[in-house]
Request: fold
Amino acid sequence: MKRVRAGTGVAQVIWQTVARVAQAFLTDGDSAVFAEDAMPFGKLQGLFSVSR
Reply:
């Protein structure tokens, strides 16, 4: 098994995305921005599947 290090990079990308989506929602009041890059629920569930 090889260890992969991303440091704070993953968290920084997540927080930048949260900030962008929140700002767009607060500016425009349109909740469609939440679905633009959303991962389908089934795919998200698959990431946590025991049989992976």
Summary: The helical segments are 9-28, 41-47. The chain has two helices and no strands. The chain has a mean pLDDT of 88.
